Amino acid sequence: MGQVLSKRFGMEEKDMFDVIVIGAGPAGSTAAKVLAERGKKVLLAERCRLPRYKSCSGVLIRKTMDLVETYFGEKVPPQALCTPVDNRGMIFTNDKGKEYRFEQEGQNVWRSSFDHWLAQNAQKCGAVLQDGVSVVKCLEEAGAVRVTLQGERTWTEEAEYVLDCEGITGAVKRGITGERQGHVTTFQTFNRGKIDLDPHYFYAYLQPELSEYDAWFNVKDDLLVLGVSVKNQEKISFYYKRFLSYMEERHGLKISEQLKAEKWLMPHIRPGCPITYARGRILFAGEIAGFLNPMGEGISAGMESAYHAANAIVQHKACPQDVLADYMERTKSLTGYMRRQWDLVAAMAEPFVEMKNVDGTERFKQGGDRHK
Ligand SMILES: Cc1cc2nc3c(=O)[nH]c(=O)nc-3n(C[C@H](O)[C@H](O)[C@H](O)COP(=O)(O)OP(=O)(O)OC[C@H]3O[C@@H](n4cnc5c(N)ncnc54)[C@H](O)[C@@H]3O)c2cc1C
After folding, report:
1. Global pTM?
2. Which end of the chain has a smaller Cβ tally under 10 Å, C or N?
């Protein structure tokens, strides 16, 4: 354990954390678990009270299921699953109405229970979990980071490293880098009703007349979930109505009751899939770093990036430059996977052609991957 005593910043002597992890989503909980398991003193700070709500389709692809087993040593517990439990893959309809089927074993979860279970696992391994606590500021000085936390009170902690896994919110990252994350707005509704589609699949629609990004349909515990994503929030209602009409005409959708509607944000991934890795002793992982696969599949990328960031810290703690270099090296295959996935979507649908990664390696070399 890093029982380092510190008088930095003129504060009273107190134990310093090896790492403070921001956000108990899949990325943050994975990192906190790995670090605690490796004997590091870790604080996992989560803004919301757990279990917290996260707008999501809740589809774990095969890769995510494997990562859960590898990193957490267990399968997803029954309490996190919803029906139909087994997801059998994704069906994309492109801008010309052509269907592409990707058959693959997957699972259907409620994110609140799944993420809570991940965070509890990190806690069991020794991470200090504090929910209802926001990180409001990180300041690197004299070989450490001073972190201001706000819950029922405001106080500061010190850590050798901070791993920012705050998700799309981005307020902490903005304070550190000044960068604004581009985003798309998602809007989805949960409904009772009927439809002539197999509930075991996740359906994505890439026609520009139905959304400014994608539209989707899936089933969770007998509820029909319908969503659209837009770049301009004012167009939500316009596209959502069009999507409903399309689903009524093509797939016999009949909604008897809308139970819930929710808006959220998702990073707008740019060509070359740029990643923000780190600023000094503050590393970024998961969505806030830019790890997101096409059509919003982000749990696997979040977990994997955070796992690599945590291991890079463990391996090279004494030298932030080495941590960064190692983190970038470890995520090479993940970023390659992301680019290939986006490339696939670009080849399927004209509106995504800008994501064609023909010169991805060049962009990478020219600084498409932002880091210092
Ligand atoms: C509509 C929609 C559908 C999706 N469907 C899927 C899907 O089916 N499958 C899939 O794999 N992915 C899906 N995604 C993407 C997936 O939800 C994200 O990519 C994933 O949650 C990213 O994980 P993360 O840990 O980086 O961030 P998050 O899961 O967002 O976790 C970040 C955490 O940080 C906390 N936080 C934020 N700021 C602070 C702060 N200042 N201090 C402390 N805590 C803070 C937040 O409260 C949150 O709990 C979907 C996304 C959307 C919007």
Report:
1. 0.94
2. C
Interatomic CA distance for residues 33 and 117, integer angstroms: 12
Q: Is the CB of 267 under 6 A from ligand 1?
A: no
Question: What residues make up the domain containing 249?
Answer: 59-110+182-267
The total of other beta-carbon atoms located within 10 Å of residue 85's CB is 13
**Cβ pair 122, 131 in contact under 8 A:** no
On whether the CB atoms of residues 37 and 276 are closer than 8 A, the answer is no
Residues 72 and 193 grouped into a single domain: yes
292 lines ligand 1 (CB under 6 A): yes
CATH code at position 70: 3.30.9.100
Last residue of a domain, one of 210, 240, 267: 267
Identify the pLDDT of residue 133. 98
- Is the pLDDT assigned to residue 127 strictly greater than 90? yes
Q: What is the mean pLDDT of the chain?
A: 93
CA of 161 to the centre of ligand 1 (A): 22
For ligand 1, whether the C-beta of 56 sits within 6 Å is: yes
Residues 39 and 167 in one domain: yes
Q: Which residue from 114, 162, 299 has its CB within 8 A of the most atoms of ligand 1, so it is best to mutate?
A: 299
186 lines ligand 1 (CB under 6 A): yes
Sequence letter at residue 90: M
**277 and 308 share one domain:** yes
Tens of pLDDT, residues 197-210: 999 999 999 999 99
Examine the domain organization and report whether 146 and 10 are in the same domain: yes
